[in-house]
Specification:
single chain, Rossmann fold, two-stranded antiparallel ribbon, 11 strands
Length: about 325
């Protein structure tokens, strides 16, 4: 079993740093292998046809965030512009930031404040709206050193919008609908996207709290369901191709999927049900620690590796104990 961090202290550090395996994250976020159900495909197409933002909900790990990268990939629009919502986010933050203190300091020190536009930093949707214009039309609002890539359409991801204050979605209603924003620091200059290059907006919501009706009216909505066993197996094969090449024995993968779904439906209930990401990490950890893809969780050695990797599957102390007990009673793809 691979032990990068030993169970007992070493007398001396290694002569050279230990190499670590590459992160599995890149494979898990690859838009080329994004699996989507027919309902999601329809919702994306409706949003594109109606030029409206797409709001997607669902459990963490169901692929909401990667959807934006998948849409951008399939439409040939490059990497999405991402806005990671925080509890302190304000409406302006979605479009731009302005270094008021920096400009004031430059004026006070007499170092030359420069143009007001030089203190602007464009954020996800603001950047997309700027890009949706001919460079000559927006050159006066571009900071020094900004290189406009040429008029183009962009995909914008507004991730985990439920984290924002309640006023956040209300404050961007008109801007989201008309794809424009104003910059008070530049004389209230309005920047509006060319209609033929309107940004494509994907908004994710973990359903932790409801959003205002007026905001939802402006969105196309879809809830991504948790995958069933067959879909989950497809996701695992797509995300971990290095471990399961074509015609490989899939015993461990299928047993792990079956066990994870069994855990999710445990009558006693877990505080936090494992999602797709947890299953992928758990299975990846087992394989990296030496589990053979052709073995079952019923195999004592494989089960021990699975038990020692449970920190990737169950994220709460009481859940880890409960899942450990279920794993101990697992026999031939079912609870013993």
């Amino acid at each position: 079993m691979t032990m990068l961090y030993p169970a007992t202290p070493s007398s001396a550090p290694p002569a050279v740093p230990k190499p670590l395996p590459p992160s599995p994250g890149n494979e898990m976020r690859d838009p080329r292998e994004y699996r989507r159900d027919p309902g999601l495909v329809d919702a994306v197409n409706v949003a594109l046809l109606l030029r409206q933002p797409l709001m997607v909900t669902g459990e963490p790990g169901t692929g909401k965030t990667v959807l934006a990268a998948s849409v951008a990939f399939e439409l040939g629009l490059g990497v999405p512009l991402a806005f990671e919502t925080k509890s302190t986010s304000q409406a302006r933050d979605l479009f731009y930031g302005y270094d008021t203190i920096g400009r004031f300091t430059s004026k006070e020190l007499g170092t030359g404040a420069g143009r007001p536009a030089d203190y602007i930093t464009y954020n996800a949707l603001g950047e997309a709206i700027v890009r949706a214009n001919d460079p000559d039309l927006v050159h006066e609002v571009l900071p020094a050193g900004y290189v406009h890539p040429g008029k183009r359409r962009s995909v914008v991801l507004i991730d985990e919008v439920e984290k924002a204050p309640r006023d956040f979605p209300n404050d961007i209603l008109n801007e989201i609908e008309r794809m424009y924003f104003r910059i008070p620091e530049l004389g209230n200059r309005a920047i509006e996207a060319d209609p033929d290059h309107h940004p494509i907006v994907v908004i994710t919501n973990n359903s932790e709290k409801s959003l205002p009706d007026a905001f939802l009216r402006r969105c196309i909505y879809y809830n991504i369901p948790f995958p069933n066993a067959a879909t989950m197996e497809e996701i695992v094969l797509a995300r971990l191709p290095g471990y399961f090449p074509q015609d490989a024995d899939l015993t461990l993968m299928r047993d792990a999927v079956k066990f994870a779904l069994f855990v999710r439906h445990d009558p006693a209930g877990l505080e936090k049900k494992p999602g797709t990401a947890e299953l992928l990490n758990w299975l990846s950890a087992m394989l990296r620690r030496g589990a053979a893809p052709s073995t079952s969780l019923s195999n004592p050695a494989t089960r021990e590796l699975a038990r020692r990797s449970l920190s990737a599957l169950a994220k709460i102390s009481s859940d880890q104990s409960r899942v450990g007990d279920m794993l101990s009673g697992w026999r031939d793809g079912a609870r013993g």
